[in-house]
Amino acid sequence: MSLSPSLQPTTFTADLRTQFDAFLDEHRTALYNCLDGLSEEEARASLVPSRTTLLGLVKHATFVEKVWFDEAITGRDRQAIGIPASPDESFILTEADTVPGVRAAYSQACEDSRRRAASVALDDVVTGNRRGPLPLRWVYLHMLRELAQHCGHADILREQILAARS
Predict the structure, then answer these.
(1) Cα separation of 151 and 160, whole Å?
(2) SS3 label, residue 33
(3) Fewest C-beta in 10 Å: which of 34, 39, 43, 57?
(4) Domain 21-164, CATH number (from 3.40.50.1980, 1.20.120.450, 1.10.3720.10, 3.40.640.10)
């Protein structure tokens, strides 16, 4: 995945858009990397009562990218995009969902998100989301919150999986 592994010192004084992009990419990279070195079985391990698994988190993040950077920006509906109707459904894994396949889909979704957002200014209003018109700045903040939350989930699940190897 072509994401920066960490924030660079030049980011600290960059304009707000550059900072938002850098923080989003840092969280995208962390979520992508949560599957590093895991078997298919480990990536699918269900360690909590919900549908949350490491592979499911990355699949859900793909959904979230498409909701906020496709649906919200382009106005296409979820059926046309080819994503589930609800966030809960986006965690469901099928037999076809593999670590390489889910990672590739996530990487592509992130690339598509960057491309779609590139021509929209932070204060521009996007109108395709179910909540109604929102400035792109709100979308960025929401995505940062969403990805940070899921990176925390991934850290804990990965720690449990790696501990179980011992």
Answers:
(1) 14
(2) helix
(3) 39
(4) 1.20.120.450
- Mean predicted lDDT score pLDDT of the chain: 94
Asked if pLDDT for residue 23 goes beyond 80, the answer is yes
Q: What is the pLDDT of residues 24-75, one digit of tens each?
A: 999 999 999 999 999 999 999 999 999 999 999 999 999 999 999 999 999 9
Which residue's structure tokens are 């919150």? Answer: 145
Consecutive H or E run containing 163: helix 136-164
> What is residue 82's DSSP assignment?
T
At 143, which amino acid appears? M
The amino acid occupying position 134 is L
Determine the Cα–Cα distance for residues 123 and 2; give it in Å rounded to an integer: 27
How confident is the model at residue 166, as a pLDDT?
A: 81
Residues 71-100, mean pLDDT to the nearest whole number: 97
Reference 2, options 36, 28, 23; nearest CA is 28
**What is the crossing angle of helices 99-118 and 54-66, to 10°?**
20
**Phi, psi torsion values for 119, nearest 5 degrees:** -95, 5
Q: Are 130 and 78 in contact (CB under 8 A)?
A: no
